[in-house]
Amino acid sequence: MAKELLLFELNTVRNWTTGLFDEVNEEDMHHIPEGFNNSLHWQFGHVAAMMEMVTAAVTDKNTDAYKRYAKYFGTGTSPDDFDDDTPDTKEIEALLRGHMARLEDMEEEVLQEDLPREFMGMTKRFEQVGFIALHEAMHVGKMQEMKRVLDNRGVS
User: Fold this and answer.
1) Could you report the per-residue pLDDT of 48-68, keeping only the tens digit for each?
2) By three-state DSSP, how is residue 115 classified?
3) Which part of the chain is the DinB-like domain (predicted)?
C-alpha cells in the first residue's frame, strides 16, 4: 500500500513539474528573475537531483547521476557553479521523465528499510521518498512564480 500511495503522489507532482517544463522556453530557463536566487534551469536540475538521490536508493543503487547532479544542483549551489559539464535542460528533462518508470520497479520491502543515517528527522526510506514529493511540490510552486515573473517582464 505504501508503494502505491507514494507512486501516486510522486507521479502527480512529477506531472506538474514536466507540465511546467513544457511551458518554459529555453531562453527563460537560464534567466534569473528579479527577486530570485536561481534560474529555472537550476530549479529543474535541483528537483531532478533530489529525486535521483531517492530513485537510485530504492531501485538500481547507481548514484553516479546523483553525484553529478548534486555538484551543480544540490542544496547551496547556484548557477554560478555551472561549467561545461553542467547537465543541460534536455538532459535534465530526460532524467525527470525517466524517474517514474524506474520507481515503478521499487520493492515494497525497500521502502521499509532504515536510512543509512537520519535525514531531517526521518529514519525510514518511505519517509524520505514521501518528503521528496513534498519537496518537489514546493519547488514547482516556486518555479510557477518564477515563470510568472518572466512572462510579465516589461508588461506594465
Assistant:
1) 999 999 999 999 888 899 999
2) strand
3) 10-141
Domain enclosing residue 24, as ranges: 2-30+38-151
What residue has cell string 536566487? 37
Residues 6+ apart with CB under 8 A from 13: 133, 136, 137, 140
The Cα–Cα gap between 38 and 141 comes to 14
- Candidates 52, 76, 75, 47; CA nearest to 63 is 52
The percent of residues in the chain predicted with pLDDT above 70, rounded, is 97
The predicted-structure confidence for 118-135, as pLDDT tens digits, reads as follows 989 999 999 999 999 999
C-alpha 69/C-alpha 15 separation (Å) is: 21
Domain count, the chain: 1
107 belongs to a structural domain: yes
Furthest-apart CA atoms within the chain: distance in Å: 55
